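Hi Y.,

Following your request, here is the sequence exactly as I used it, all 274 residues.
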Amino acid sequence: MSATAATAALREPPVPAGAAGRRRRRGRALLRGAVLPLALLLAWWGVYATGLTESRFYAPPGEVVQTAWRLAGTPVLWTAIGASLLRALAGFALGGALGVLVGVLLGTSRHARRLLGPTLNTLRQVSLFAWIPIIIIWFGLDEASKVVFIAIAAFFPVMLNTVEGVAGIPREVRELARALTCTPAQTFLRFILPGAAASIFSGAYTALVRVWGAAIAAEYMMTSGPGLGRLLLDGLETSAMDLVIVGVLLAGLIGFGLHFLASRFESHLLRWRQ
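Below is the corresponding structure, written out as tokens. Let me know if you'd prefer a different format.
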């Protein structure tokens, strides 16, 4: 190496050990996470290649890939994905907003906790799917019923985490807000919301995972309108296992994408805590 090259190399900033370590950890985590999907794919291909089953309810990997490619060239698949995502986000927004409002109320008011807490704790024990008959009777099978079902899935995780975050704010913070003669809105925006942000985002993260599954279930059980759940039901009714597998894989991949985006968004918004 020449003296000029050596000098240039010395001037280049070294890669931080922390950043390099994080990249290595992410790489190892990615490899570990790929082990099970690759093993399942290999077993799936092995069953087909060895002729262990000839059932019409079995779809070989090649047939599933062909079906996915064929659907990707039609508006049916993209309409279904778009409808499912819009429903999930609408229900998430409605249930999450109500969860934050009720959670702040319960976290800041002892009287509200005594009045509303027992009822909300009782309703929280009700299975999500037990709400379906009531929702259908009240809202029918239209779009509103699906959004309400999804909103219920989002409401309780956000509400519980908001209560925990607001109630965990030290008393000194509230006293400081009173000493500064802050209005209730200023107290909420400047003290309560930042103090409870981590807990609220944790609840929103859990809710986002739940609402995607709730959106698929709502479309499957309330059969009006397009969606991935409807696509799965079509595959079931026609015994098209390749269509069913395509729908399941898409639901899983989109759910993983939402999980990843939510975690990155949370890390970005809460970077000030690091």
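The two ends are 41 Å apart (CA to CA).

Thanks again,
Q.
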